[in-house]
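As a representative case, we now present a protein record of this kind.
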Amino acid sequence: MSTLKAYPVWDSVIRWFHWINVLCVLGLMAVGIAILNDKALGITNDGKILLKTVHVWIGYAFALNLLWRLI
């Protein structure tokens, strides 16, 4: 009888890259939707500034992840 042999398709670095991308995209979408619906959600101006700051930091994480992958 022949035995099955597993061959890894993607290494752990690639998997981490993809999962960080997934989390960044979901985070950017969630914060962006919250910013767009600020009045319906009752977000104050200070809260909106905080959301925009978080949005920018998630974008930086996304860009650094891409840079890490390109290098």
